[in-house]
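About this split. The held-out portion is used to measure sequence recovery: a designer receives only the structure tokens and must propose an amino acid at every position. Recovery is the fraction of positions where the proposal matches the reference. Here is one held-out target exactly as it appears in the evaluation file.
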């Protein structure tokens, strides 16, 4: 399960590379005859300097010689520096890997409400060199609001972005969940609730949580609740196991401290063994262990 807004967005774009094609066609007027996008390796090495990582890289054609490359960047908050970095990505891919016949494009997906204030073209100059890049920035105002449940049924991935951008608008989350229910495949639909749940914040998250908390016959909601419960139990078990291992390690370290004292000929009382048995703090046990190497009396361990 994604663990942050950035990761949630990345998961959606990775699973639905066609979203970048939709953005380029809608906002840049760039149409493609073939829309069979594939996800590629998002790392480029510019030896001897450093590695560059884009969030999601998609292409059309063959992996070794793509006809078109789209660099997808996810920015929860835009800045001029981040836009300039996109120029670096685009140039690196063009220069070090290939010159795609249909070009290299950059699409930025962001929930930043200030997205429209940033330029759609970035120019970087260095001496006689000038680099210009036209960006496709998809912010809240570019993401369509959910007006009907049918929109969700037809384009569930795009609907997830809409919940992220417009979930604070009354009725959005209700239509989102209803549209997923209309798909008729609860297991499939739960995936999109999962995506949206990780991407929303503030009022949008509160609205979605209210919808999901309702007692309902909606099988999609019920399935998602069961999924959350199962994850919570799994996380609880994992935390319990980790705590158990830490407690066991602390006890073993505390026993080791007393054994060092005995090996050095220093008397250890039964009460001290009882205290070591009860030790659950690994840092404390480590301090005892270090003190045991130089202590002249057993009591010095616990001072």
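Reference sequence for scoring:
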């Amino acid at each position: 399960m994604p663990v942050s807004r950035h990761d949630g967005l990345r998961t959606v774009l990775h699973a639905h590379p066609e979203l970048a094609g939709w953005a380029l066609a809608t906002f840049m007027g760039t149409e493609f005859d073939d829309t069979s996008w594939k996800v590629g390796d998002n790392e480029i090495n510019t030896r001897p300097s450093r590695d560059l990582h884009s969030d999601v890289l998609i292409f059309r054609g063959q992996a070794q010689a793509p006809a078109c490359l789209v660099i997808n960047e996810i920015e929860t908050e835009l800045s001029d520096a981040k836009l300039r970095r996109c120029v670096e990505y685009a140039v690196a891919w063009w220069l070090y890997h290939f010159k795609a016949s249909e070009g290299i494009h950059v699409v930025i997906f962001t929930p930043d409400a200030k997205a429209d204030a940033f330029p759609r073209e970035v120019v970087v100059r260095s001496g006689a060199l000038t680099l210009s890049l036209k960006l496709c920035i998809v912010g809240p105002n570019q993401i369509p609001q959910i007006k009907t449940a049918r929109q969700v049924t037809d384009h569930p991935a795009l609907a997830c972005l809409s919940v992220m951008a417009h979930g604070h608008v009354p009725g959005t989350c209700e239509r989102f969940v209803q549209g997923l229910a209309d798909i008729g495949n609860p297991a499939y639909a739960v995936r999109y609730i999962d995506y949206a749940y990780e991407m929303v914040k503030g009022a949008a998250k509160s609205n979605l949580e209210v919808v999901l908390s309702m007692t309902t016959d909606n099988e999609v909601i019920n399935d998602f609740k069961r999924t959350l419960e199962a994850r919570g139990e799994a996380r609880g078990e994992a935390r319990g196991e980790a705590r158990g291992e830490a407690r066991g390690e602390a006890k073993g370290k505390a026993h080791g401290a007393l054994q060092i004292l005995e090996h050095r000929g220093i008397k250890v009382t039964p009460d001290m063994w009882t205290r070591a048995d009860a030790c659950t703090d690994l840092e404390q046990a480590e301090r005892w262990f270090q003190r045991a190497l130089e202590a002249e009396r057993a009591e010095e361990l616990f001072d």
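Annotator remark: The chain has three domains: 5-138, 149-214, 240-302.
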